[in-house]
Design goal:
This is Putative alpha/beta hydrolase family protein. The chain is an alpha/beta fold. It has 8 helices and 9 strands. The radius of gyration is 18 Å and the shape is globular. Helix 3 packs across helix 4 (138-149). The longest helix has 19 residues, at 108-126.
Length: 287
């Protein structure tokens, strides 16, 4: 899977652009208490960086007016954190764009541990009590692993959105079937591990899983088979308070850029900031 996803990473690096200026230690002093705010943590996929979600957060800030501030946070392979920007006391639904120094060779477990370092530091600095997360591709796997390994650790993960995340890897033969599937033909070690740790998931978690099909006969988003992306139902459906699925079909819903599609962004915004999630709900896509 790494070799295939490396090509995605190269494209994302091109799309990402340049990073912002590193924030100094002096600028990091006297930070506001934002315990009344729920930050949105954005986690990129293989080969991405802190800039990968720029267009996504631009839409949430400039178009939807759902947030008014964002920062970027790089995480080194040694756990060193480099901040780009700070939040002010006026921050509303602040956005944090995560960037891993190594998202190509590092395992999902390793990236999850690095994410925990970053989240812990953010909580110490801004006193966040809870958070929401959006992950694209392997970034969704990182947040899913986080939801199991750190389910009861503050800040609590309250809402999780996964976009084109390969829960059952990328092999077409392992993911044959249709939208009504109740299991996959072959359960890979990755999916098996998630299934074995289902009981660790916070029962109050709200999950939205997004899959797409570019409609070329592959039943995939050109990288991730639909059944692999919706393998999330085998993990979260009976464990989280809410589990919703969305399925998009058409050539515009390519894996590499689907998180930048405005239709998908609107749906994510609805789930994060309009959908109440005040009762148990399961909504699966079907044929």
């Amino acid at each position: 899977m790494k070799k295939i996803l490396c090509s995605i990473g190269l494209l994302l690096l091109i799309l990402a652009g340049c990073g912002d200026t590193e924030t100094t230690e002096k600028e990091m002093q006297n930070l506001p208490n934002l315990s009344n705010q729920t930050p949105l943590i954005l986690v990129h996929g293989t080969g991405g960086n802190t800039d990968t979600f720029d267009s996504f957060s631009d839409t949430f800030i400039d178009d939807y007016k759902l947030s008014n501030e964002r920062i970027k946070l790089e995480i080194g392979t040694d756990g060193k954190l480099i901040y780009h920007g700070i939040f002010t006391k006026n921050a509303k639904n602040p956005i944090v764009q995560i960037g891993f120094e190594d998202s190509i060779d590092a395992s999902i477990d390793q990236q999850t541990d690095w994410l925990r370092i970053a989240i812990k530091d953010l909580a110490n600095k801004y006193k966040f009590a809870q958070m929401d997360g959006v992950g694209h591709s392997n970034g969704g796997l990182v947040l899913s692993t986080y939801s199991q390994n750190f389910a009861k650790t503050r800040p609590l993960l309250k809402r999780l959105v996964v976009i084109g995340s390969p829960y059952n890897d990328l092999d077409e033969n392992d993911n044959k079937g249709d939208l009504d599937f109740t299991d996959v033909p072959v359960t890979t070690p990755l999916l098996k591990s998630y299934e074995e740790n289902r009981d660790k998931i916070n029962p109050e978690l709200l999950v939205l899983s997004i899959a797409s099909d570019i409609d070329d006969g592959s039943f995939s988003d050109d990288i991730v088979p639909v059944l692999s992306a919706l393998g999330s139902r085998l993990i979260f459906k009976d464990q989280s308070k809410v589990y919703l699925e969305s399925y998009y079909k058409g050539p515009e819903y390519d894996h590499r850029t689907m998180f930048a599609d405005h239709t998908i962004q609107e749906h994510v915004a609805w789930f994060l900031y309009t959908y109440k999630g005040d009762h148990q709900e399961i909504n699966l896509v079907n044929n």
